[in-house]
TrEMBL record:
Keywords: Heme, Iron, Metal-binding. It comes from the Bacteria. GO terms for molecular function: electron transfer activity; heme binding; metal ion binding. It comes from Rufibacter hautae. Residues 39-68 are annotated as: Disordered. This is Cytochrome c. The keyword Nucleotide-binding does not apply. Pfam families: Cytochrom_C. PROSITE patterns: CYTC (PS51007). Residues 19-162 form the Cytochrome c domain.
């Protein structure tokens, strides 16, 4: 469990579940997780571009979204491209889709804290041994340096948000 040092003592005290969730929400917000893991609302004069859809917050690339046609050589010409929702990316690795981070079984609902740590520390898909690497643009190598306390806080927060059923498409390998 995450701990904090109190002013009157140097002994760590365990954070409550509420404090863990608050810390996790803060870390998810400053980490900009919703930039890639949340579908966006259509911009209007009152909704700025790239505003996360609160009904699909952190639910990953929508299973029903079809990608527009890609130019020939996409991902092989030194460029990386994103779709309009910022939930799909194409590069030399092929096409990758942002994961569902909600506590639904189609997201991280069946994950343990150990799965979460393995995913972010080792870049293992679904946090399981003998699985593929998490693909770009997910910057898991940067997150691999996070403290256990922060990973636990993020996981606690993600497990507390609204579950959204969304089976994210499988990656598409690069065309030969």
């Amino acid at each position: 469990m995450v701990s904090a040092v109190t002013q009157s003592s140097t002994q760590p005290t365990a954070l409550s579940q509420e404090a863990l969730k608050e810390r996790g929400e803060y870390l998810v917000t400053i980490g900009a997780c919703s930039d890639c893991h949340s579908p966006k609302l259509a911009p209007t004069d009152k909704i700025p571009p790239m505003t996360p859809d609160p009904d699909r917050y952190l639910s990953g690339h929508p299973a029903s979204d079809k990608l527009p046609p890609m130019p020939a050589g996409a991902g092989k010409n030194g460029w990386m491209m994103f779709n309009m929702n910022n939930t799909a990316a194409v590069g030399p690795w092929g096409v990758s889709f942002s994961a569902n981070l909600t506590p639904d079984p189609t997201g991280i609902g069946n994950w343990t804290l150990d799965n979460f740590k393995k995913a972010l520390r080792e870049g293992k898909y679904k946090g399981m041994d003998n699985t593929r690497q998490i693909l770009p643009p997910m910057p898991w190598p940067h997150y691999s340096k996070m403290k256990d306390e922060d990973l636990e806080a993020i996981f606690t927060y993600l497990k507390s948000i609204k579950p959204v059923k969304n089976v994210v498409p499988a990656p598409i390998p690069p065309a030969v």
